[in-house]
Design brief:
The protein is α/β, with parallel strands linked by helices. The chain contains eleven helices and 15 strands. It has an eight-stranded mixed sheet with strand order 1-2-4-3-5-6-9-10, with helices on both faces. A three-stranded antiparallel sheet has the order 11-12-13, with no helix packed on it. The protein has a two-stranded antiparallel ribbon with strand order 7-8.
């Protein structure tokens, strides 16, 4: 995943911190904008995880900070709901001018309400997804209700929201009552995915029910069972990103994946050394994958490890070879299971007579056959399992040719 910093200004001339996350091939099929939750920033781990997951589905994703939040210019008091919507429209216009107009909007919490409102105004948006969104914009006022009375008396006060101090004024408070979100959702008439946790204590599940009621088909609901409002568990945010990426394919014309400029190669991998730990995006012509390392050794565990992919190649090739052989022989092989483990073992433990005892790579392969097979057939299949192309490659001498591409 590649990250590009964008130079976006909103309608008031304030600079918004924004980043464009790109797929491994750096050539998105479509573009999306992610709107973060109230008082959050685009650096929230859930925002990054969802964006990363969407890049694996071929999207370029813009994540940005609303006015007065994160590293965007302006004051928080200017970051009322209408300003959030204006910021979304400003980012969309920037993308339309410099890249391509975003066709998917994703919003978390109040950001979900903002993308619904923005999508109603943007003809280029083809689909919308919300996560933990309120059914009314004014719902968020309970977070600073302790300061509303004081605002009326003093004009501007400092309130504590989520353990952090923010300054708000009368215009900030009043703006949350200006938008009729239910009416907007009724008129939206665009594919809508509503995702919500039943145990959300910040924005109750009733909000999802109301949004779904207001919306017209095509509309979908996915429950985030066990998740909290901020999607603190990375498993939940990765799930959200992958569900959105899969769901939206129904409403977007599929496009052929384009490889990187290393044309003619079978596969490409990309690791953003600055942004990520070990998470590596892998792409073939038609498929995207993610490789990572376990958390125990400093990774994020977003995907299988390199050796697990090595094992996967051996497993798949073995199973396919056995199927083809059994079919050619017209044997009754109905199912095959291939269990593989890679490890490092000492030559003495393996019973090998080495002049210089040492540690060696060791792969164990266990087979299970389902079908009406006799012992002789099973023995022959065991022999064939060692003749699959990947197995032969692993036990043969391999010649590598490594080159460096100059920019």
């Amino acid at each position: 995943m590649k990250r590009t910093k964008l130079d976006v200004q909103n309608s008031k001339g304030l600079k918004l911190q924004a980043f464009l996350e790109l797929p491994a091939n750096q050539k998105p099929n479509y573009y999306a904008i992610f709107a973060h939750c109230f008082t959050c920033t685009s650096s929230l781990s859930a925002v990054k995880n969802i964006s990363r997951a969407l890049t694996n589905h071929g999207f370029g994703v813009v994540r940005f900070d609303f006015t007065g939040l994160g590293r965007s210019e302006g004051e928080f008091a200017d970051s009322h709901f209408s300003a959030n919507v204006d910021d979304l429209i400003a980012v969309s216009r920037y993308m339309a001018s410099h890249y391509e107009a975003p066709s998917l909007l994703i919003g978390h919490s109040l950001g979900g309400a903002a993308v619904l409102s923005a999508a109603y105004q943007l003809n280029t948006v083809n689909a919308v997804a919300t996560v933990g969104a309120p059914a009314t914009v004014s719902h968020v006022k309970h977070l600073f209700s302790h300061g509303i009375h004081e605002v009326r008396e003093k004009g501007e006060v400092e309130v504590n929201i989520g353990g952090r101090p923010f300054k708000i004024n009368q215009d900030f408070v009043a703006d949350f009552d200006k938008t009729d979100l239910p009416e907007i959702v009724k008129k939206l008439r665009k594919p809508l995915l509503i995702m919500h946790a039943p145990t959300d204590t910040v924005v109750g599940i009733k909000n999802a029910e109301q949004l779904y009621h207001y919306a017209h088909h095509p509309k979908s609901f996915v429950t985030l069972d066990g998740a909290d409002h901020l999607l603190s568990n990375s498993t939940d945010s990765n799930y959200v990103g992958n569900v959105i990426g899969t769901w939206v394919q129904r409403y977007f014309e599929p496009k052929e994946q384009v490889m990187l400029e290393t044309k003619g190669e079978q596969m490409v991998g990309h690791l953003n050394v600055v942004e990520d730990k070990f998470t590596t995006s892998i792409q073939t012509k038609n498929h995207n994958m993610i490789a990572d390392e376990p958390a125990a050794i400093g990774g994020d565990d977003f995907g299988p490890s390199p050796y697990e992919y090595l094992n996967a190649g051996l497993v798949a090739c073995t199973a396919m070879t056995l199927k083809m052989y059994a079919q050619r022989k017209q044997w009754d092989l109905q199912e095959v299971y291939v269990y593989v483990t890679h490890s490092r073992k000492h030559s003495d433990d393996l019973g090998l007579d080495k002049e210089k005892p040492t540690f060696l790579d060791h792969i164990s392969k266990t087979l299970k056959f389902v079908g009406n097979l006799d012992d002789a057939q099973k023995l022959r299949l065991k022999e064939i399992a060692s003749k699959c192309p990947v197995h032969k490659t692993l036990v043969s001498e391999v010649v590598f040719d490594t080159t460096v591409i100059e920019d």
